[in-house]
């Protein structure tokens, strides 16, 4: 009886164990590029037949290891930005180590050329540059009739002077921002560039000499919804004509309604009415005396155009009885 029990125990010890008790295997390898240089930081994933995966990374020598794998088939994928390598299927045997030498090719990426930019709109408070927004009411409350003079009143750093004897600059007065040349300020109308006038300033008080800027007086103030003034250099965004800043005139876009206004005024000086010093009454004395009555009539009307369109019309007419060169328009 004792002999039978001993033989049974010996047979049990010599019998093979179940499949689940098989010794695990290992996958190891090295990842290089096409020239033979090692590639550290490669993401390596080993996925078995059931879809269960393990992830590791190559070390500083380009090597990776998956220890303790159950015997079976595994699919290995390799990921590294700028490189590409096909997936490999590896058979893992019990107690064995599968060695791999992986070569990754340089991935040819398509060149992307940026031809435009888009910036999210921001509020005035969030803007990193000084922006002034002038409403239409700020123009209507002024007594002056010329748009350039109205801007000079409400916009810091904007300056325009009367040019009584300065060739065509007496008609298209050169206006400047931050004491720079008129053509260093970008003028926009509804966000689009305003063309320059066909006048090159001569005797432009130094700042405007040789400059060619747009005629701001040709824009009726009654047609404006608001004016946005960027009082800082914006050449990087708009170009070299925005060194001094940018002025954007937003026109009215109402589909109905309208307005009309009439302004009239006159100024006198100490020489008014003195024929001995200034000639006929009402005329200036070499541009420094006399009287100058002036008037301006302006109107604006909005009309619907189609289901959602509009047609907004503005008209301005003005004149002065004392027509010195500074008042020609």
What's the SSE blueprint?
Layout: H1 2-14, E1 25-33, E2 43-48, E3 53-57, E4 63-69, E5 72-79, E6 83-84, E7 88-92, E8 97-106, E9 131-135, H2 136-140, H3 147-154, E10 158-160, E11 175-177, E12 185-189, E13 192-193, E14 224-230, H4 235-238, E15 245-251, E16 258-265, H5 275-278, E17 294-305, E18 309-320
Parallel strand pairs: 1-8, 12-15
Antiparallel strand pairs: 1-4, 2-3, 2-5, 5-7, 6-8, 9-14, 10-11, 12-13, 14-15, 16-17, 17-18
Provide an overview of this structure.
- Helices cover 10% and strands 35% of the residues.
- By secondary structure, it is mainly β.
- The protein folds into two domains: 24-106, Immunoglobulins (Immunoglobulin-like); 131-327, Ferric Hydroxamate Uptake Protein, Chain A, domain 1 (Beta Complex).
- The strands form five sheets. Strands 9-14-15-12-13 form a five-stranded mixed β-sheet.
- The longest helix is centred in the first third of the chain and has 13 residues, at 2-14.
- The model is unreliable at 4-12, 279-288 and 323-329 (pLDDT under 50).
């Amino acid at each position: 009886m004792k002999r039978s029990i001993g033989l049974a125990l010996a047979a049990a010890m010599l019998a093979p164990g179940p499949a689940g008790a098989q010794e695990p295997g290992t996958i190891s390898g090295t990842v290089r590029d096409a020239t033979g240089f090692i590639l550290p930081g490669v993401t390596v994933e080993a996925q078995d037949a059931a879809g269960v995966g393990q992830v590791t990374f190559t070390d500083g020598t380009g090597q990776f290891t998956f220890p303790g794998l159950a015997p079976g088939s595994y699919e290995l994928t390799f990921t590294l930005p700028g490189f590409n390598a096909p997936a490999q299927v590896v058979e893992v045997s019990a107690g064995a180590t599968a060695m791999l030498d992986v070569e990754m090719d340089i991935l040819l990426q398509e060149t992307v050329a940026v031809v435009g930019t888009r910036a999210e709109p921001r509020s005035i408070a969030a803007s990193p540059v000084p922006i002034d927004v002038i409403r239409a009411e700020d123009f209507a409350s002024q007594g002056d009739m010329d748009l350039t003079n109205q801007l000079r009143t409400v916009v810091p750093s904007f300056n325009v002077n009367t040019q009584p004897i300065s060739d065509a600059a007496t008609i298209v007065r050169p206006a400047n921002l931050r004491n720079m040349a008129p053509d260093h300020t970008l003028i926009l109308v509804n966000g689009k560039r305003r063309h320059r006038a066909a006048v090159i300033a001569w005797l432009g008080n130094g700042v405007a000499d040789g400059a060619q800027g747009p005629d701001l007086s040709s824009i009726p103030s009654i047609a404006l919804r608001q004016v946005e003034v960027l009082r800082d250099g914006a050449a990087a965004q708009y170009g070299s004509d925005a060194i001094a800043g940018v002025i954007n005139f937003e026109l009215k876009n109402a589909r109905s309604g309208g307005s009309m206004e009439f302004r009239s005024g006159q100024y006198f000086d100490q020489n008014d009415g003195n024929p001995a010093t200034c000639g006929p009454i009402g005329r200036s004395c070499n541009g420094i005396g006399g009287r100058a009555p002036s008037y301006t009539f302006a109107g604006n009307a909005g009309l619907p155009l189609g289901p959602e369109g509009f047609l907004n019309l503005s008209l301005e007419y003005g004149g002065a009885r004392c027509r010195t060169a500074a008042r020609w328009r």
